[in-house]
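DM from R.C. (forwarded with permission)

"hey, sorry to bug you on a friday — could you get me a structure for this? deadline for the figure draft is monday and I only need the backbone to look sensible"
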Amino acid sequence: MNDLLLDGLLALPAGFAVLTAVLAGRERRDPVAVRVAALGGLLTLAWSVWLVLAAPGLRAVDHPWLAALDVHWRLGLDGISAPLVLLTTLITAGCLVSLLRAPASTTPGRGALAALLLLVETGVLGSFVALDMVLFFVFFEVALIPLWFVIDRWGDRHDPRGRRRAATRFLVFTVLGSALMLVGFMLVREVAGTFDIVTVAARGVTGQAGSSQSGLLAAAAVLVALGLAVKTPLWPLHIWLPDAHAKAPTVGSVLLAAVLLKLGSYGLIRFWMPLVDPGWQLLAPCLAALGVVGIVYAALACLVQDDLKRLIAYSSVGHMGFVALGVATFTVGGVQAAVFVSVAHGLITGLLFFLAGGIKDRYDTTLLDRLQVLYGRLPRLAGLFAFAAMASLGLPGLAGFWGEMLAIRAAVFPDGALPRGTYLVLAVIAALGVVLTAAYFLALMRRILQGAPPAVQPVNPDTDSVELVSEEVEPGTATVEPRPLPDVRRSEWLVWTPLAALTVLLGVMPGLLLTPVAEAARAYFGGL
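My reply, with the result:
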């Protein structure tokens, strides 16, 4: 039964991806292809809920796959991976449902786009349930490559060269990172004699490695860390992220921020922590320091951004910095913080990018100078944006608060083998980053949400253009009201409401996530 549930979780989106691609090959059937893809996304969401409730345990599927290379089809699920599986299926289903109402004029070839999203979902889900290091790498690549096509073909229609450059930079960085990760896995195999990460974690391979093997294991840990740092992303390996988000279509930005970045954060927990001995006194503090630098750097970068999507993208670098800080403490609390930040970031930033896409659909831009007075013109959308922004800055009572707080607390009380003084300094700097995060989100809200709507728009009788002027009106000037814009549509409520509701639920009941994560961390790592 467990085999069926786990294999079915991967087979279902993959099968619907193929079916959607076949239907999308015929232009007349493109709307049908999108509906089929949306059905596949919803069925995969339901399947994942069934799988998590069935609670198969960490090791459920283990069959030889590439016997000559000692690569096995090892799949499993526990309290660390289950929340990310549910997050992936929820976000993907929302993206596919949102495509149902996307106009063909702005989103041509929606069927092909939906098929690629399902393929990305297959790769991400496979990565979250893979327990063989090579199998994780394979699914990792399956998730990355289709997103290049998503950004390149359906990205910013006003800048085809820019979207190609952003897509190519994304692919080059992430593929090079995964190549480094694969080399690291090969070195682990040389030391541990297996690609099975559960066996590596249970043996405590760092303690059993001899002096010659210890150097190989340290090199492996560095390579795996670099590969995963690119995907997380951590400063300074984040430079592919802002352009990728700015040029990607809305569903691409949502999937990239809410789901694909979690491949890096999850990989640090599942595949990097078992390779590192906190007694090394160097590697873990370096990871923590890079994460904290990213928190502060991202907040300062956000303060000077002039594009909404780029600002949200930089905020992701800061949030993922808290993941690195939590992981690098080598404590149960640190693992709880890393998973909670990952899930909360997926919900909140996914909602922010959906809202940014809704704003762009109405204004045809995400430049902040042209986005003003949203409260006055789009009150419901503006209210949702304010809610998401407050959640992202870590307002208590919403999901964004707990992960950051737990990461800072874990840094104050790290593993006993780590330099506590260093981590205490990092905790203080990370707390400063929280203040800066609040500063840039509050400044953003004031900039685009508040203010008085323009009172008049003089009509030029010689042209059809309407130019915005000051509120002072010359006597006898003919005026018209600003063009009305549609507020939140019913289909948008359908997609956005679950993300907002879960943000509140995890904010007031964090134990729903923290308890299973703690149990899984103690079972997986043993000594934590």
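R.C.: lifesaver. The beta strands are 61-66, 71-75.
me: no worries. The longest helix spans residues 160-192.
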